[in-house]
Amino acid sequence: MAEYIAPIQRLIEEFRRLPGVGAKTAARYAFATLNLTDDEAARFADAINGVKRDVHKCPVCMGLSSTSGECDICAGEGRDKSVICVVESAKDVMVMEKVRGYRGVYHVLGGSLSPLDNITPADLTVKELLLRVESGEVGEIIVATNPTPSGDTTAAYLARILEPYGITVSRLAYGIPVGGDIEYADEVTLYRAMEGRRSFN
């Protein structure tokens, strides 16, 4: 027998699908949802549907766009398109944008290499990155993968495959603990990491 009546149990199970949400938190979210007014519940549901309907992948950087075309960063004036900061996820782009001094563009890999999880270069947007480099407009790649074993493996792999292109490939000089994520870093730490980046060459 389920612990809760069927509609609540179903909602709890859906909340549990979210990363980091355990049974108790899912139950708390479900009961909070139950207390919403009809208008609040409709807005909540519409926001979820809107994200699925209106958020697209940018065809240039593989990040997020509110249109089916280029994202605001790729299409924006005043961005230095000769410098590409490579990150693991679209969330990382939003965090890196807090570094006011950075005026380059981005490339979202969609994850990091992990042989144990069968994640290979073919599962990431490495091919798309190389196409951007082959255009001849790129002078520097800043590798901003997370300081984790898989992030470091990805960074080393990118440095190796980008070497023949003769461009500068640098890695953020992290003031972030090993095993930490860029997502949780503060602006000062990110700024210092960006300023202190080092070359693989």
Number of helices: 8
Radius of gyration: 20 Å
Number of domains in the coordinates?
A: 2
Total strands: the figure is 7
The largest pleated sheet is described as: 5 strands, mixed
Strand content: 5-15%
Shape: elongated
Low-confidence stretches: none
The first-to-last residue Cα distance is: 62 Å
The CATH class name of the largest domain reads Alpha Beta
Q: Can you list the strand order of the major beta sheet? A: 4-3-5-6-7
Mean pLDDT: 90
- What is the CATH topology classification name of the largest domain? Dna Topoisomerase Vi A Subunit, Chain: A, domain 2
Please tell me the CATH architecture of the largest domain by its name: 3-Layer(aba) Sandwich
Reading the helices and strands in chain order gives HHHEEHEHEHEHEHE
Secondary structure: helix percent:
40-55%
Computed structural class: alpha/beta
